[in-house]
Amino acid sequence: MIIAIDGPAASGKGTLGKRLADHFGFAHLDTGLLYRAVAGVLLDRGTPLTDRDAAAEAAENLDVSHLDAPNLRGAEMGEAASVISAYQPVRDALLAFQRQFGSQEPGAVLDGRDIGTIVCPDADVKLFITATPEERARRRHVELLRRGENVEYEPILSDIRRRDERDMNRATAPLKAAADAITLDTTHLDADAAFWAALAIVEKSAPKT
Ligand code: CDP
Which residue lies with its CA nearest to atom 20 of ligand 1? Predict the structure, then answer.
C-alpha cells in the first residue's frame, strides 16, 4: 500500500504524511530531505550549487541515515535543495532508494513533488496538497521562529514564490498533480482538519486500509 503526497513548498505535506503513516502503521519518507541532504553535502564542502557533477556524485553516495539532522530543515537548505533538485542525474540517483522505500509492507507514505507522477505512479492513493502562498509563508514563518531562526515573513513569502516557480517550471520532474491525484486545499484547514480530510480521501480511495 502506497500513499503518495505531493504539493508546493510548506503546504504541510510532511506533517500530514507523518500523521497518515502513524495512523496506518506505515513507514514515512519526506523525500525533500533527500534533496536537502544532497545540498547540505555541497554546502559543507564549499562546492558551488551550480556544480552538477558534484551534485550528482553527492546524490549517488548519499548517506540516508542522517536525514533527521535538524540543520536540513532550515530555510537556506530548502532554497539550495530546489537548485540541485532540478538536475536530472541527481533525481536519477535518488529514485531507486525512494521506490524501494515505497515497496515496504504493510505500506509507506512518501511526500514530495513528483511522487504520484514519477516515483510511485502506481500508488494506491495520490494526494496533492495546496494552500495559498501567503498561508504557506505564514505557517513556515511560525515553524522557523519555533526552531529559533530569526526570520521575517516577507522574505519567506518571496522564497516560497521563487521555489514554486522553479519547481513548477523545471524541465525534469516538475511539480504538478498527477492526473489521478485528489487535490486538497488546506488554506482554511489547520493540521488536524487537514489530517481528517486526507484520511477520508484515503479511506474512500483505498477501502482496504
Ligand atoms: O518542506 P518544503 O516544502 O519547504 O521543501 P521540501 O519538501 O523539503 O523540498 C525542498 C526542495 O527539494 C523543493 O523546493 C524541491 O525543489 C525539491 N524536491 C524535489 O524536487 N522533489 C521532491 N520529491 C522533493 C523535494
Answer: 85
Å from CA of 39 to ligand 1 middle: 11
Rounded distance between C-alpha atoms, residue 29 and residue 5, angstroms: 10
| CATH (one of 3.30.390.50, 3.40.50.720, 3.40.50.300, 2.60.40.10) for 2-203 | 3.40.50.300
Edge-to-edge strand order for the sheet containing 2-6? 27-30, 108-112, 2-6, 125-130, 182-185
pLDDT digits (tens, 9 = 90+) for 66-124: 899 988 988 889 989 999 999 999 999 999 999 999 999 999 999 999 999 999 999 99
**Cα–ligand 1 centroid distance for 33 (angstroms):** 7
Name the residue of 31, 109, 127 to mutate for ligand 1: max ligand atoms within 8 A of Cβ. 31
CA dihedral 168, 170, 173, 178 (to 10 degrees): 30
For the chain, the structural domain boundaries read 2-203
pTM above 0.85, yes or no: yes
Longest CA–CA span in the chain (Å) reads 49
Cell digits of residue 122: 502506481
